[in-house]
Write a structure and sequence with these properties.
By secondary structure, this protein is mainly beta. It contains two helices and 38 strands. A hairpin with a 6-residue loop joins strand 19 and strand 20.
């Protein structure tokens, strides 16, 4: 386990243990991760006690403080759990707990400590009404072992952000939720989209629908989940052979209409649609590019609309959206990022666009070979930047088009500025009029690693994506996912 903040530097003590002296070390560390409303266990501290001699000791109490938290009353319950030699959190052995938040705690119990490493974990559950603009902070000012107190040298901590576990495994009977997208409507509503993967966490083909969650108060509370794209039973085949997913969401900033794009797969059970979809145009041959729309801020949605005949070439093996979100250009053109597998099964990222508010759609050419999930922004009027997942690994690919995808040029930052482990990412532009810097800026988020999906980070760029200074980056979650 990698730890970002260690604030108690190996306090070594000689203490009384019966008729002998036992030497031990204590340290406390904190993992950078959001504390989530709707999650039963949020680990906020790890306590490590090392008994250096081959003798058992007894932990008698642990003191905690919430100094530095915005409001400790955001906390519903706090517990300390013991995992013995294991440096992996589990909630099987409870050392102590409280059913309310507090400014300070003292947990008293007796836990036998084994020679060597012993691990304890401080975990909290937040109240449903906890303020998402607040932060949670915990320190451990005292540990008492064998009748003697060990006081950490440094008891400062880094406050942790509050967020929402918007969808958990098992919610509404679904095994998993994946492939998120998020948009703010012209009325200020947050609309989150995702796959509802009813039976397992695998990609299509399977029993998958597109779900929506909405917040009317800037993310503080969320309405119940809606199932908005569901192909049901079609073509004589059951629902688990008519999955639809990998959604992308777009708001038409001129009309206010919301669009969701999804990939519909028909038949071929037990095989990945990415591999089984072939040339052709019909659902029996190839994956279908579907749209649904809402004219009431996401409260209700149209039936799915099939635009495959408008945009797919018959020789392509697969064509569908780039998951996440689309944009409206300054001139009103609607843009979805997209991806296709050509006649040789080579994937390419591209865009589709509509000049008539979604009545008809056209497609660009491939921006770069062997790229898939992409996000798009308009870096200046009429100029689109496509930021792409690159199957070569290591870093993101970036291309520019000035003619809606007819032609592309490689951006100077491509394959160098933004590392990635081959994964979905997000890119949005925030106009100067909508932020406090007075400048246009880009915000990019992904797992900040070349090989593994961890260290979810937001990076800010002020020069149209050329550079992403370290001082303008925020690590949100160092965990794996």
């Amino acid at each position: 386990m990698k730890h970002i903040l260690t604030y108690a530097a190996l306090v070594c003590l000689l203490v009384s243990c019966g008729h002998s002296k036992v030497k031990f070390e204590t340290s406390v560390s904190q993992k950078t991760a959001p504390v989530l409303i709707g999650k039963d266990n949020n680990v906020v501290l790890r306590i490590h006690i090392n008994i250096e001699e081959n003798k058992e000791s007894v932990l008698q109490s642990i003191k905690l403080s919430t100094q530095g938290a915005t409001d400790w009353q955001d906390i519903e319950t706090t517990g300390i759990y013991y995992t013995g030699y294991s440096d992996i959190f589990q909630d099987h052995v409870l050392f102590g707990s409280t059913q309310s938040g507090a400014a300070a705690y003292k947990f008293k119990a007796e836990q036998t400590l084994k020679p060597g490493d012993n691990y304890f974990w401080v975990s909290v559950k937040l109240k449903p009404e906890a303020n998402i603009l607040h932060k949670i902070a915990f320190t451990c000012p005292e540990i008492r072992i064998n009748g003697t107190s060990a006081v950490p040298v440094d008891s400062t901590s880094r406050p942790l952000r509050i967020g929402h576990a918007l969808r958990n495994k098992g919610d509404d009977g679904s095994v998993a939720f994946r492939i998120p997208g998020l948009i703010t409507t012209s009325r200020g509503t947050l609309v989150a989209i995702y796959d509802i993967r009813w039976r397992n966490s695998r990609d299509l083909q399977d029993d998958v629908d597109v779900g929506v969650s909405r917040s009317m108060d800037k993310g503080q509370t969320w309405l119940p989940m809606q199932k908005v794209m569901d192909m049901g039973e079609w073509g004589g085949l059951p629902q688990d052979q008519n999955g639809i997913g990998d959604p992308s969401i777009l708001m038409d900033e001129q009309t206010g209409r919301l669009w969701i794009a999804g990939l519909w797969a028909h038949g071929k059970p037990g095989t990945a649609t990415w591999n089984s979809s072939g040339p052709g145009m019909t659902p029996f041959e190839t994956g279908q590019f579907m749209l649904a729309y809402s004219d009431d801020d996401g409260a209700t949605w149209s039936a799915p609309i099939n635009i495959t005949p408008q945009i797919k070439k018959p020789e392509w093996h697969l064509f569908f959206q780039g998951p996440g979100m689309g944009i409206t250009m300054k001139d009103g053109t609607s843009i979805f990022p997209a991806q296709f597998k050509d006649k040789d099964k080579m994937p390419h990222s591209t865009v589709i666009f509509s000049k008539d508010h979604g009545q008809t759609w056209q497609v660009g050419t491939g921006a770069r070979s062997n790229t898939t999930e992409a996000q798009v922004v308009e870096v200046e009027p009429g100029v689109l930047m496509l930021n792409m997942r690159d199957n070569r690994g290591g870093s993101r690919a970036v291309s520019i088009t000035r003619d809606l995808g007819k032609t592309w040029e490689e951006h100077p930052s491509s394959r160098s500025a933004l590392r990635e482990p081959v994964c979905m990412a997000s890119l949005i532009k925030v106009d100067a009029s909508r932020n406090s810097t007075g400048r246009d800026l880009l915000l990019f988020s992904n797992p900040d690693s070349e090989k593994e999906r961890h260290n979810m980070t937001i990076k800010t760029g002020f020069d149209r994506g050329l550079t992403w200074p370290k001082e303008n980056q925020v690590l949100l979650d160092e965990g794996y996912g």
